UniProtKB/TrEMBL annotation:
Keyword annotations from UniProtKB, A to Z: Hydrolase
Keyword Hydrolase on entry: yes
Keyword field contains Amino-acid biosynthesis: no
InterPro entries in the cross-refs: Amidohydrolase (IPR017439), Bact_exopeptidase_dim_dom (IPR036264), Peptidase_M20 (IPR002933), Peptidase_M20_dimer (IPR011650)
Record's protein name: Amidohydrolase
All residue ranges annotated as the Peptidase M20 dimerisation domain in the record: 179-277
Domain of life (superkingdom): Bacteria
Transmembrane segments: none
Classification via PANTHER family: CLAN MH, FAMILY M20, PEPTIDASE T-LIKE METALLOPEPTIDASE, PEPTIDASE M20 FAMILY MEMBER
Length: 380
């Protein structure tokens, strides 16, 4: 069973309509309503799941596993450039990662499932909210209603600029790093700029803190024990010449190839900050943001996707896997056999999160075909 030419035309138009009306993480209410309205008849539709998430269930009525296919709803707080006829109509927000295309693929898959249910088990199509800030998957999993549709298998895809159309990246094992944003606040006391010694400025602590963070997360080649610390923001005192500052804030993004590597790096970074704060007579406080767990492809789920790629004549290799970037899909691997495939968007295609990126509509049909083949293999 495949999509018709009419299906592909309608799905392309839907994808472009989503592109016009992007919404950032946690605010995807209109996007969720549009997806829900476009779903063909499902056996169960769960809305407002973990926020604005939507889950559509296509049930065979026969015993068998639950297979979940996941896409994302949210866009990015970035100004879109270019002259697309369907460009973003929301100032400062745009679909520059392809989540509009990923969700359209799931709607195409829904059309096939509505026409013919799987022979056994059930399929859950999850349109996940808030992927970009790492909060969506955790919220979906924490929603009590998710327990009733929890999957045995979880599959997903992401488009990948720089990889040729008709090619993919896929490999078992680590796929994406775990990461978290650590905000470090140092508080002392201000003083007149002519008498800095009478205050407690964070100035002496910051260079040692920055150098220490970079040394404990140097990056380098991907592999076991990979760790990276990236300073992303620094603020100290008020913009005035007459005041010696009394506080500072440093933001650092920490990455590890595994969740355990990330946890160790978080602990080490906080210990370093405590030591530097104590030496400078400062009070230190922490907050953690945008937490992503490591994304690991289960060998069995990877094998299913491998056979689906083979069936569609899509070549694949390990590419640059595992990747430094993070992906909120990793949390679903805690209780399900999960895997993600990276589908080429074109070697010269603008990169993800750049202002001229746009999802290639040519990926809609093969994306649907990959998932449909996987579902048929698992459920019949």
């Amino acid at each position: 069973m495949t999509l018709t030419n009419s299906d592909i035309h309608e799905l392309t138009e839907f994808r472009r309509a989503l592109h016009r009306r992007p919404e950032v993480s946690g605010f995807e209410a209109e996007t969720a309503r549009s997806v829900t309205a476009a779903l063909p008849a499902a056996d169960l539709v769960v809305t407002d799941l973990g926020g604005h998430g939507v889950a559509a269930v296509y049930d065979s009525g026969q015993p068998g596993p639950t297979v979940m296919i996941r896409s994302e709803l949210d866009a990015l707080p970035i100004v879109e450039l270019g002259d697309l006829p369907y460009a973003s109509e929301t100032p400062g927000v745009a679909h520059l990662c392809g989540h509009d295309g990923h969700s359209t693929i799931l709607l195409g898959l829904a059309r096939l499932l509505a026409r013919k249910r799987p022979a056994t088990g059930r399929v859950v199509l999850l349109f996940q909210p808030a992927e970009e800030d790492g909060s969506g998957a955790a919220a979906v999993l924490a929603d009590p209603r998710f327990a009733g549709i929890a999957p045995d298998w979880a599959l997903s895809l992401h488009n990948m600029p720089g990889v040729a159309l008709g090619r993919a990246w896929l490999a078992a094992g680590p796929a994406n790093c775990a990461s978290a944003g650590l905000r470090i606040t140092l508080t002392g006391g201000t003083a007149h700029a002519s008498l800095p010694e009478t205050g407690r400025a964070p100035t002496p602590a910051l260079p040692a803190l920055i150098d220490g963070l970079r040394a404990m997360g140097p990056g380098g080649a991907m592999g076991a024990g990979f760790r990276l610390a990236t300073i992303t923001h620094l603020r100290m005192g008020e913009p005035a010449f007459g005041i010696a500052p009394g506080e500072a804030e440093l933001w650092v993004t920490l990455r590890g190839l595994s969740t355990e590597d990330l946890d160790a790096l978080l602990t080490q970074a906080q210990d370093l900050a405590r030591g530097e704060a104590e030496a400078a007579g400062l009070v230190v406080a922490f907050s953690i943001h945008d937490r992503f767990e490591a994304c690991t492809n289960h060998p069995d789920a990877t094998a299913v996707l491998t056979r689906a790629l083979d069936a569609q004549g899509i070549g694949y290799d390990n590419g640059d896997m595992p990747m430094r970037g993070s992906e909120d899909f990793g949390r679903f691997g805690g209780a399900a056999k999960s895997a993600m495939v990276f589908l080429g968007s074109g070697t010269d295609h603008p990169a993800l999160h750049t202002q001229t990126y746009d999802f290639p509509d040519a990926l809609i049909a093969p994306g649907v075909a990959i998932f449909h083949h996987a579902i048929t293999e698992l459920l019949g």
